[in-house]
């Protein structure tokens, strides 16, 4: 309902019908300030209250701490003063109201008691450090702020309502002008004043220690779930505080971590009562004990014993939070369900539930206990444990951060003999059979992609019988058959393909990239089932020559990705079955191009031979004019490089073919190829006086086989130019020597007038740079030659502009040589 009384004072906006509450000094409304939701405290202007209002405003301006309510702005008009305060979700007293009370806090569960105590202690310590006393500490003045984050809700406790606060001396005392606060939360010394033991209040010194007492009462109130530590009704509470009879203290076990702390905070005399700083220090010490206790709780759940209940009770008496989580967000039930496979599992789940474990708590990844149980628990109790969790009220359809419920997790990760029965139980108990994760995967997808157990076939049948959408596709358009063929190494792969076909799954379906099941099989499967799987898919009628979006067929993918021992046989089988041997992709690549570009296995040589024997076009070029030898020279750095070059040339490849840029195989070899095996071996080889390296061997092989040593590309670059421009390996010097010995034109220039020395000085960052420069000059290259562009640059000019040379001493060395 829209308000008929909107208010806007200096940017503080609210409607009078958005009422939140009222106190002795004003009313609170929900409002806005600069677009932010706020709480607006409205205080009537009165002569007798002006000093108090100014004092509260001044105190609020001083406070800036996560555990105190923040003042955002203030304003006034003729009748009222307005405070714009950060908006919180509830006050502490609302947490303990009856469920049917409309004011009951129903937000996210508060942090554990230790965390709440720590936040409140930190806030009060800060207030006291500012030489301030609160003077009205009670549950109603502790607010709860809930801020959603990527990791969940950030819940913060905040001290609020500083209307009675005032400044104190450095010793934490002040001269009282009256008794302020709420009777049920008064300290004994304040109640003594009311009782008339000190009639002249103005002559009495107050102390911040009264805040400590009230905070101790609040701590007890929290532990007792809304009961006061000194009694059940107002009169009893006040009388028991005066008599120092904390009648409900016995409900906090003597060994509880907070018992001794609260007793020190509730000391009957201010002088023996601990300070806010000491409370904070004490809590930090307690924290170490709690961490150890929580770890013991989690370890106990991993392997519960016959006296599990007794040990749990002992930990609870110590104040260990049953719902405590580790850094990954795991609680005791998570550990129990993920790791426990003992006969005690079922009873332990029931015990934790009886004691108040948060059954639906999730870890940082959004997994609850049912997810973790289904993940990898292979206990014989798996089925009963699933039933118990669901009967106790766990959210069976809860999803992880990735969007999975328990069924896909079971199908993905569980290899228990009970898998099929567990699937059936989950579905019978009402889990969403066709639920998908954030990527659109359902349980059948996960089963076919990851399950390699003997249960695979029966599990597929069970899911189908129970009504799963067998033709459902993921967000990428993958079907269960695609995922089965993607990476399944199960001995049941062939049978699984047949079962899916019998279930009428669409065998020629393509994903959004155009891949069908055969593409994925040839791309990913390296198991002994590869050959039979190809045959089965063909028998079932898959489109053997189907191409995906880039124009690649299964044969291309096999030669590109498959490095298994089945590669040769798989090539032969596809050809026998009728796949197009010379098919090209959209960029003009055939299977031989893919093989020479990507294959680095010992099968490379035999695979080249088989393709050529079967009739592939040996000299086919792609759209950029590259043939198989170009790809081999540019990308292959394996021990097979030399033999592969020989095989291609012996079988008739055009040795001097150039690509569209005029590059031949020698250019590409000198430009980019680096054989890592030679890095350690080169020194030994040189010492032994044999061929210097596989790099130089490859160059020699090409030249011996007749490649045009002095061939140039379209920009006038020869092999020596490419070598000096791009090669920074230890083979640089020896490769220059080889080219020189074999007769390359070392003086030739590119179309821009660059010689080899220019390119070396302008771009090369090899550790051998200075030696290479020196060697070229000794060979007679013109060190003073200038390029054709601009005013003409010399080799030295180019070395100075070389961004790869950052060492000034290296430049000095070059200067001396040039």
Automatic annotation (TrEMBL):
Pfam families from the UniProt entry: Ank_2, Ank_4, Pkinase
ANK repeats: 328-364, 365-401, 550-586, 587-623, 624-660
Database matches in InterPro entries: Ankyrin_rpt, Ankyrin_rpt-contain_sf, IRE1/2-like, Kinase-like_dom_sf, Prot_kinase_dom, Protein_kinase_ATP_BS, Ser/Thr_kinase_AS
Record's protein name: Protein kinase domain-containing protein
Keyword terms: ANK repeat, ATP-binding, Nucleotide-binding
Coiled-coil ranges per UniProt: none
Signal peptide: none
Molecular function terms, GO-annotated: ATP binding; protein serine/threonine kinase activity; RNA endonuclease activity; unfolded protein binding
One GO BP: intrinsic apoptotic signaling pathway in response to endoplasmic reticulum stress
Cross-referenced PANTHER family: IRE1-RELATED, NON-SPECIFIC SERINE_THREONINE PROTEIN KINASE
Positions annotated to bind ATP: 41
Domain Protein kinase as annotated: residue spans: 14-291
GO CC entries: IRE1-TRAF2-ASK1 complex
């Amino acid at each position: 309902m829209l308000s008929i009384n909107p208010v806007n004072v200096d940017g503080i906006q609210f409607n009078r019908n958005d009422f939140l509450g009222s106190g002795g000094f004003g009313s609170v409304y929900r409002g806005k300030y600069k677009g932010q939701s706020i709480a607006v405290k409205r205080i009537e202007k009165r002569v007798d209250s002006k000093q108090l209002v100014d004092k509260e405003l001044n105190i609020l301006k001083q406070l800036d701490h996560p555990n105190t309510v923040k003042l955002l702005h203030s304003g006034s008009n003729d009748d009222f003063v307005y405070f714009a305060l950060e908006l919180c979700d509830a006050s502490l007293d609302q947490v303990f109201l009856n469920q049917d009370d409309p004011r009951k806090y129903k937000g996210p569960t508060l942090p554990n008691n230790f965390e709440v105590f720590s936040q409140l202690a930190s806030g009060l310590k800060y207030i006291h450090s500012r030489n301030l006393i609160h003077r009205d500490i009670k549950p109603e003045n502790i607010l709860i702020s809930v801020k959603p984050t990527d990791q969940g809700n950030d819940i913060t406790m905040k001290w609020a309502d500083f209307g009675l606060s005032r400044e104190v001396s450095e010793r934490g005392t002040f001269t009282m002008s009256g008794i302020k606060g709420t009777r049920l939360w008064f300290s004994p010394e304040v109640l003594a004043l009311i009782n008339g033991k000190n009639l002249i209040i103005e002559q009495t010194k107050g102390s911040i220690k009264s805040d400590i007492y009230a905070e101790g009462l609040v701590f007890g109130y929290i532990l007792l779930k809304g009961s006061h530590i000194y009694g059940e009704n107002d009169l009893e509470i006040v009388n028991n505080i005066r008599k120092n009879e904390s009648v409900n203290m016995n409900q906090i076990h003597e060994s509880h971590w907070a018992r001794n702390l609260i007793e020190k905070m509730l000391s009957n005399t201010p002088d023996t009562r601990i300070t806010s700083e000491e409370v904070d220090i004490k809590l930090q010490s307690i924290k170490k004990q709690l961490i150890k206790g929580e770890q013991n709780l989690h370890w106990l759940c991993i392997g519960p014993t016959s006296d599990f209940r007794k040990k749990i009770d002992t930990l609870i008496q110590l104040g260990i939070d049953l719902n405590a989580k580790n850094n990954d967000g795991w609680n005791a039930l998570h550990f129990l369900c993920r790791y426990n496979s003992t006969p005690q599992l079922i009873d332990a789940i029931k015990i934790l539930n009886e004691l108040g474990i948060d059954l639906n708590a999730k870890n940082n990844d959004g997994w609850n206990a049912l997810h973790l149980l289904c993940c990898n628990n292979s206990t014989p109790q798996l089925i009963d444990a699933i039933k118990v969790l669901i009967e106790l009220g766990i959210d069976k359809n809860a999803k992880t951060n990735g969007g999975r419920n328990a069924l896909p997790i079971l199908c993905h990760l569980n290899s228990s003999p009970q898998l099929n029965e567990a699937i059936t139980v989950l579905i019978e108990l009402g889990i969403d059979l066709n639920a998908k994760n954030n990527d659109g995967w359902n349980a059948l997808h996960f089963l076919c992609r990851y399950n390699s157990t003997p249960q695979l076939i029966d599990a597929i049948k069970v899911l189908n019988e129970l009504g799963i959408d067998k033709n459902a596709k993921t967000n990428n358009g993958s079907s269960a058959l695609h995922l089965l063929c993607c990476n399944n190494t199960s001995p049941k792969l062939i049978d699984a393909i047949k079962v899916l076909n019998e279930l009428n799954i669409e065998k020629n379906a393509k994903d959004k990239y155009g891949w069908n099941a055969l593409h994925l099989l040839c791309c990913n499967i390296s198991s002994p089932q590869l050959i039979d799987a190809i045959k089965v898919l063909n028998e079932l009628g898959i489109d053997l020559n189907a191409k995906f979006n880039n124009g690649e067929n299964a044969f291309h993918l096999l030669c590109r990705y498959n490095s298994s021992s089945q590669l040769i046989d798989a090539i032969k089988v596809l050809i026998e079955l009728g796949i197009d041997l010379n098919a090209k992709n959209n960029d003009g690549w055939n299977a031989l191009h893919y093989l020479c570009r990507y294959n680095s296995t010992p099968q490379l040589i035999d695979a080249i031979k088989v393709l050529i024997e079967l009739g592939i076009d040996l000299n086919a070029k792609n759209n950029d004019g590259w043939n198989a030898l170009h790809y081999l020279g540019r990308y292959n750095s394996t021990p097979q490089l030399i033999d592969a070059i020989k095989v291609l040339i012996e079988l008739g490849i055009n040795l001097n073919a150039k690509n569209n840029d005029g590059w031949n195989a020698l250019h590409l070899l000198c430009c980019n190829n680096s054989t890592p095996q030679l890095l350690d071996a080169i020194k030994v080889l040189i010492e032994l006086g044999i061929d210097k390296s596989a790099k130089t061997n490859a160059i020699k092989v090409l030249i011996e086989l007749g490649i045009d040593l002095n061939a140039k590309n379209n920009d006038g670059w020869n092999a020596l130019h490419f070598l000096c421009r791009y090669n920074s390996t230890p083979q640089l010097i020896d490769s220059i020597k080889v080219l020189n010995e074999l007769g390359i034109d070392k003086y030739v220039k590119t179309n821009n007038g660059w010689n080899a020395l220019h390119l070396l000085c302008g771009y090369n960052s090899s550790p051998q740079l200075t030696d290479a420069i020196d060697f070229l000059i000794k060979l007679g290259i013109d060190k003073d030659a200038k390029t054709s562009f601009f005013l003409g640059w010399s080799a030295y000019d180019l070395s100075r502009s070389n961004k790869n040379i950052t060492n000034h001493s290296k430049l000095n060395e070059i200067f001396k040589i040039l």
